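User: Reviewer 2 asked us to show a designed sequence for the structure in our supplementary figure. I'm pasting the C-alpha cells here. Could you produce the per-position amino acids so we can include them in the response letter?
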C-alpha cells in the first residue's frame, strides 16, 4: 500500500493525458484489503486533524479542495466521512447550485472568489467554477449569455474559459493557496444502482430528484467534458486527481491520502514564541500558581 506510488496512478499534472475510457471506476482487485484501507483512512483522518491545527495556527497557507463529480458519485458522503471529524473553525464547505440573478451579472469566478478561505483554513467547493466548462459546455448555455461577441472567442468560449481557470489557479497558488482538484469517477452502471437504491429505500427518497435522470442521456457528453477540462487545466502546481468512485471505502481512502500528501508537503508548524513572550508567559504562570 505505497501511498506515493498509488496516488501517481490517479494524479494528472499535465505530464500525461487522461483517457476516461481507460480510467478505473473501482479499486482494481483490492477488495480483499478493504478493512486495511478503512483502517488507514481513519488513521489519515487523525493525521489531517493534527495538520489542520498547525495550518490554522501558522496561518501562512490555505487549502482549497475542488470536488467534482456526476450525481450519486458520493461527494457529500465523502466530505462528511473524511472531513466531518475536523474542527469546524478551520474548515468550510460551499455547495454551488445554478447562479442566481445577482451572480449572473458578474463574471463566472466572482461568486467563488469571495468564498475562498483565509490563510490557515481549509475549504471545500462541492461543485465549483468548473461547472462553467462542464454543464455549461454540455448544454451550450453560454450561447444565450448576454455578453459582447468578443467574449465568445469566435465560438471557442469553453477553450477561453480553460485558459482563464488556469490563470486564476496560478494566481491562487502564487498567493498562498493549495488548490487540490478531485474528480470522483463513477461508472454509469453504479450510478444507476445508486439511483434505484434512492427510489427503493424510503429513507433515501429525499436524495433523489427527477432532474438527475434528465442528465443521464448526456452521459457521454459529460465524460468528454470532464476529460477535456481535466486535460486542459491539469498543472504541476494545481493537479487533478481522478478517483475511482464505485467503491466508497476506496474513494474515501484516496481522498484522505490526497489531503495527507498535500498537508505533509505544506508541513505547517505551531509558531514559536519569542523569548520576550515566553518570559511573560512564565510570569502569568507564576501569578496563577501563587493564588490562594
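Assistant: Here is a per-position design you can include in the supplement:
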Amino acid at each position: 500500500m505505497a501511498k506515493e506510488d498509488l496516488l501517481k496512478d490517479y494524479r494528472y499534472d499535465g505530464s500525461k493525458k487522461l483517457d476516461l475510457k481507460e480510467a478505473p471506476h473501482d479499486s482494481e482487485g483490492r477488495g480483499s484489503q478493504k478493512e486495511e484501507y478503512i483502517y488507514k483512512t481513519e488513521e489519515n483522518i487523525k493525521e489531517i486533524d493534527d495538520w489542520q491545527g498547525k495550518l490554522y495556527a501558522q496561518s501562512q497557507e490555505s487549502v482549497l479542495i475542488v470536488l467534482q463529480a456526476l450525481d450519486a458519485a458520493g461527494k457529500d458522503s465523502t466530505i462528511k466521512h473524511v472531513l466531518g471529524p475536523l474542527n469546524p473553525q478551520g474548515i468550510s464547505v460551499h455547495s454551488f447550485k445554478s447562479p442566481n440573478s445577482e451572480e449572473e451579472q458578474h463574471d463566472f469566478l466572482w461568486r467563488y472568489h469571495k468564498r475562498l478561505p483565509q490563510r490557515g483554513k481549509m475549504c471545500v467547493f462541492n461543485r465549483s467554477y468548473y461547472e462553467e466548462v462542464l454543464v455549461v459546455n454540455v448544454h451550450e448555455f453560454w450561447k444565450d449569455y448576454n455578453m459582447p461577441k468578443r467574449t465568445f472567442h469566435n465560438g471557442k468560449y469553453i477553450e477561453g474559459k480553460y485558459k482563464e481557470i488556469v490563470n486564476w489557479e496560478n494566481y491562487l497558488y502564487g498567493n498562498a493557496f493549495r488548490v487540490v482538484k478531485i474528480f470522483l469517477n463513477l461508472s454509469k452502471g453504479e450510478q444507476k444502482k445508486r439511483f434505484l437504491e434512492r427510489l427503493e429505500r424510503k429513507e433515501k427518497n429525499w436524495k433523489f430528484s427527477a432532474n438527475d435522470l434528465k442528465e443521464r442521456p448526456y452521459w457521454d457528453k459529460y465524460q468528454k467534458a470532464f476529460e477535456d477540462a481535466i486535460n486542459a487545466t491539469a498543472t504541476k502546481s494545481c493537479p487533478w486527481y481522478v478517483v475511482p468512485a464505485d467503491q466508497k471505502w476506496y474513494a474515501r481512502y484516496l481522498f484522505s491520502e490526497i489531503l495527507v500528501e498535500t498537508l505533509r508537503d505544506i508541513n505547517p508548524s505551531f509558531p514559536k514564541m519569542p523569548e520576550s513572550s515566553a518570559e511573560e508567559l512564565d510570569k502569568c504562570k507564576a501569578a496563577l500558581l501563587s493564588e490562594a
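For the response letter, you might also mention the following. The two ends are 57 Å apart (CA to CA). Strands lie at 11-12, 62-69, 91-95, 122-126, 177-185, 240-244.
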